[in-house]
Model the fold of this input.
Amino acid sequence: MCFVLDKGEHLKETINGNTFVATLPGIHPVFGEALTIRIRGLQAESIRAKDPQKAALAFDQRLAFRRAMDNAHTVEIRNLERGEGGVGVWADLYLNGRLIQ
Done:
């Protein structure tokens, strides 16, 4: 299944360099509103890292991820699957038709 996201309407928040919050169009709000979506294959450091260099890198990764999403003409998520323990969703991210990994 593929979801084309409207950046102004469906994208809510960038959490870190590989995770964002979105609402899935056409899905009942109980299931598709404010989902935490982690991008499959994209690694990011934790902003909460105790090592200042890792924390700074995490901040830079988050900013770069957010800019990439903001600058994309099209944002699509595909191949969604439930995260471990039922928390969040894993997905493939396509920006301007290109798979991001």
Q: What stands out?
A: The chain has a mean pLDDT of 93. The beta strands are 2-5, 11-16, 19-22, 35-39, 75-82, 89-95, 98-100. Residues 52-71 form the longest helix (20 residues). The helical segments are 29-32, 52-71.
